[in-house]
Design brief:
The longest helix is centred in the middle third of the chain and has 13 residues. Strands 3-2-1-11-12-9 form a six-stranded mixed β-sheet. It has a six-stranded mixed β-sheet with strand order 4-5-6-10-7-8, covered by helices on one side. Helix content is 29%, strand content 21%. By secondary structure, it is α/β, with parallel strands linked by helices. The chain has a single domain, classed as 4-Layer Sandwich (Purple Acid Phosphatase, chain A, domain 2), CATH 3.60.21.10. Helix 7 runs antiparallel to helix 8. The protein binds zinc ion. The site of zinc ion has 7 residues, from loops.
Length: 244
Amino acid sequence: MRCLLVSDVHGNLAAFDAVLRDAGQFDVIWCLGDMVGYGPDPNECVARLREYPHVCLAGNHDWAVLGKLDIHTFNSDARAANQWTQSVVTAAVQAYLQSLMPQRVEQGYTLVHGSPRQPIWEYILDPLTAELNFPLITTRVCLVGHTHVPVCFYMPEDNDDHLCEPRSPRYDQPISLTSGRWIINPGSVGQPRDGNPRAAYAILDPEAATLEHRRADYPIEVTQQKMREAKLPRRLIERLAIGH
Ligand code: ZN
């Protein structure tokens, strides 16, 4: 089975469509949350996802749009974008987002937006945070989003000191997940923050246990123009061009 793994689409339809084209044939989409927030096309992105067989998690921005968490914990730009998103999402999209959970197990893989310790909030950005989360993971591989940075944290088997090593993604080369334990982030489709503005995603074969990180070009200026028309915060518009 070929699974398209995406996260943090954040209402960026041009980026999402580029990923759907770039991915080639796939059987299912696994989305790790934050379909909305920041970008100009929240309704269109949810509609596009729902055209495909898929599994989707809730992220912190999805919950914020629903009023399920305090929007004042967001910085002022994220808050402004979230308020704008609240003003445009349809009742159908709200109902869809309401149906999502922030964590689930799918075909022997743990899927969570933030971390197993704090599914909505925690950012796994460093090996220490990954090490603190490994004991809570009941499967061998855990797929996370939320940081917008593609990365793997690998913990070898027979590792008595429970240390893990961070590994930068090797693009377009499948890695084998058949040994050791893993926390893997595919990166963000709609708002990359690793200094690379191209849309990030991954292709996973859950049965063969192989994963390939990938990047796709998309017309950034199309999204930026829509954001200007929606009067979304300037900093959010500019950051798409630098991937940060
Ligand atoms: Zn996000």
